[in-house]
Each structure stands twice: as structure tokens, then as C-alpha cells.
Structure of nucleoside-diphosphate kinase:
Amino acid sequence: GWEPDDKHNMAVERTLSIIKPDGVEKNKIGNILARFESAGLRIAALKMAHLSRAEAEGFYYVHKARPFFGELTEFMSRGPVVISVLEGADAVAKNRELMGATDPAKAAPGTIRKDLATSVGENTVHGSDSAENAAWEIAYFFAGSELT
Ligand code: GDP
Ligand code: MG
């Protein structure tokens, strides 16, 4: 029978998702949001925004020292994005599973990045990598009153 344990506690979590500029440019907003909903994730907050370079740099601050930081923040600020908070059991891991590997060429079949992305730089979606980082990322884009 089912028993809770530390590895599979199925905690109800929230995670931050961004449909990156390439996904919006390709008209894939509905396609991607439908994947989240079909997987049982609830959209708890949603907005469209065109990030400034400074906003993109602030969001990706942890990658500041990486060689691709300039390319990444230029890309993330080149056009509108769709930012959402996804809620559900194991939302962080579930979203990462739906996204696929960072490099679309290495992403599993049926994942967003395998199906829609073109390169490691333009890989269509962002997703938080831990519940702790999700809390910081959600607060970066949403006021408490915008979460439902
Ligand atoms: P993620 O968590 O799967 O999104 O991957 P990371 O946290 O490691 O990297 C953040 C983002 O930086 C990725 O989604 C890519 O958009 C970008 N990125 C990572 N590696 C590279 C790279 O080698 N070149 C470029 N241009 N972008 C990269
Ligand atoms: Mg990451």
C-alpha cells in the first residue's frame, strides 16, 4: 500500500515557470500551459511581461559568473515571456520532468524541450530546481496578492 516517506512525500508545492521568448515567438503559450494542466499542475498565478536586461540579470544572478550569462540575459530580455506559478504534488520535480534536459538534444521524447526547443541557449522554458529556489523566484515576480 501507499506510505509516505522522505523521498516520495508528494508534498503540495509551488514552482516558478517561465515560457522564454523563443516559446512565445513560436506561438507555443497554449501548448505549454496545456501540458502543465494535463499533468495535474494548477496554474496559481500567471502574467506576461517583457523583462528588462536588468530584471533578467537579477533573476539569473546565480549564473552571473558563467560564460553564457551575457547571452542568456540578452535572450531573456529580447521579447515577452509568460511567467506562471504552478502548484501541485511534487510540482518542482514534475515541472522539471515535463521540461526535459537543459540541452534539447539530450531531452527525453515528449518533453517540452525535445518537442519545441532548438538549442541549449534557446530552450523554451525555465523551471525552478528546488522548492527553496522556487520561493525566491516566485517572490521575484509576484506579490503575495497575485497568488491564488
Ligand atoms: P536549467 O535549469 O535546465 O534551465 O539549466 P541551468 O540552470 O543550468 O541554466 C540556466 C539557463 O542558462 C538554461 O536554461 C539555458 O537557457 C542557459 N544555458 C545553460 N547552459 C548554456 C550554454 O552553454 N550556453 C548558453 N547560451 N546558454 C546556456
Ligand atoms: Mg536552472
About this structure: The two ends are 33 Å apart (CA to CA). The helical segments are 21-25, 29-38, 53-59, 69-76, 91-99, 112-116, 131-141.
